[in-house]
Amino acid sequence: MADENININNGADDDAFDQVTLTLEDGSELVCDVIAIYPCGNREYIALLPEDDPDGDFLLYRFIDNGDGNYELDDIETDEELEDASDAFDELLDNEEFDEMFDDDEE
């Protein structure tokens, strides 16, 4: 994915991203909802869900903030890195679900 273009659409909060448009190798575009940007080890990753397939699989990429308002997505290169990034994302989802359940109990 390093050679592909991305367009990140900001939401109301400048630090929040709603969607990412990936330009694929064949020139087609894939609009994805941004589920999370999260740390794992010394890198950040982004979890995406294709807009046209909300019940499909999450897409995980390295997320690189160039610090100048430009961002890059890069492929995860090894099975070990993918497993680590997947485990961190699963833990994030588990924590979110736990937080939601706890918040519901307070009401």
Helical percentage? 25-40%
By DSSP, the count of extended strands is 6
The main pleated sheet reads as: 6 strands, antiparallel
Mass-distribution shape: globular
The mean pLDDT is 81
Helix vs. strand class: alpha+beta
Strand content: 35-45%
User: CA-to-CA gap between the ends?
Assistant: 44 Å
Provide the low-confidence segments as ranges.
1-5, 10-14
What Rg is obtained from the alpha carbons, in whole angstroms? 15 Å
* Number of helices, counting only DSSP H or I runs of 4 residues or more: 1
Major β-sheet strand ordering:
1-2-3-4-5-6
How is the topology of this model organized?
Blueprint: E1 6-10, E2 17-23, E3 29-40, E4 43-50, E5 59-65, E6 71-74, H1 79-106
Antiparallel strand pairs: 1-2, 2-3, 3-4, 4-5, 5-6
Could you characterize what this model shows?
- By secondary structure, this protein is of the alpha+beta class.
- The chain contains one helix and six strands, in the order E-E-E-E-E-E-H.
- A six-stranded antiparallel β-sheet has the order 1-2-3-4-5-6.
- A hairpin with a 5-residue loop joins strand 2 and strand 3.
- The longest helix has 28 residues.
- The N and C termini lie far apart (44 Å).
- The N terminus is likely disordered.
Q: Quick gist of this model?
A:
This protein is α+β, with helices and mostly antiparallel strands.
